[in-house]
Amino acid sequence: MTIPVLCYHRIGGPLELGVTRVGRSAFARQMTALARGGWRTVSLAEFASTRTADRAPRTFLLTFDDGYQSLAEYAYPLLSDLGFTATTFLITDYVGKKNTWDVRYTWNRLGHLSWTEIEAWRARGFDFASHGASHRRLTWLDDVTIQSELTRSREVLSSRLGSDAGRAVAYPFGAADERVVNHAHNAGYELGFGGVRGNGSALHRPRVPVYFWDLGTVPFGLRTDALGIVGRLVAHVANRCAVGTSLMQVIGRRSSVVSAPTTENR
User: What pTM value is reported for the model?
Assistant: First the structure.
């Protein structure tokens, strides 16, 4: 078996209308139980270099998408105390900014990690990589825009954090096809992460999202029993439903363009 990959988004913070927020107590219960059960996280470098036959038992890659500020408040300190590490995929255009790229699932907009916070936690053994420049569904974009989204993000990360930060990308919404994967390769990425049904190639590795209903001490993505199979299926279906969020993003961008002031009426 390959090393399993878990994908969390928000930990704690205000309640939302969506499904990606996992409560602080639920996250702490899961991570503590895994540590006590003998599980160990791997770094991104370890994940990339480990062959299937060499995989140590009870190891997993822990990842976070979007890079919300609550990670530095709630998740990273707990993980550090447990001896765990994680890889966070950053939306580089929004580092240190509010999540105006997203549909408004919370009353107030949410903040993203700043470069100062990112650099501090990277010095403590946490990895950071790309989640695209602006979190757009790449499979819906033309070739020029896909390449820009991937290349700009990688260049920013490599410049700010070093070349290792530019080696991996998690495709927004887990959406990737052959065209997107080819663009990721051309942009210089060595690893790419999709959704539950990733095909297993270097640039399309599978990940299992952890949503608010995944409350067991062992998340579905690490279970090998029937419940794990069902849980991964439900996570896949929920991930596919995120197409609604993508549609709202497109509508929002078009509305912004239409309402933008022209030279004549400034």
Answer: 0.93
- What is the amino acid identity at position 88? T
At 226-243, the pLDDT tens digits run 999 999 999 999 888 776
Q: Which of 255, 261, 213 is nearest to 18 (CA)?
A: 213
Whether 196 contacts 206, CB under 8 Å? yes
Distance of CA 138 to the CA centre of its chain: 14
Return the H-helix or E-strand segment holding 88.
strand 87-90
Helix (H) or strand (E) holding 150: helix 143-161
Q: Tens of pLDDT along 145-156? A: 999 999 999 999
DSSP 55-81: PPTTEEEEEEEE-BTHIIIIIHHHHHH
DSSP 249: H
Summarize pLDDT for 24-63 with one digit per residue, the tens.
999 999 999 999 999 999 999 999 998 776 788 999 999 9
Measured CA to CA in angstroms, residue 67 lies from 129, 132, 181, 200 at distances of: 10, 12, 22, 24
Return the bridge partners of 111, or none: 98
Q: How many CB atoms lie within 10 A of CB 57?
A: 8
The residue written with tokens 């976070």 in the block is 64
> CA-CA distance, 44 to 234, in Å (whole number)?
26
Summarize the confidence of residues 244-259 as an average pLDDT. Answer: 67
End-to-end CA distance of the chain: 60
* Beta-bridge partners for 192: 169
pLDDT at 265 over 60: no
The length of the chain, given as a count of residues: 266
Cα–Cα distance for residue pair 88/244, rounded to 1 Å: 24
What is the pLDDT, as a whole number, of residue 88? Answer: 98
The region, left, alpha or beta by phi > 0 then psi within -120 to 50, assigned to residue 135 is left
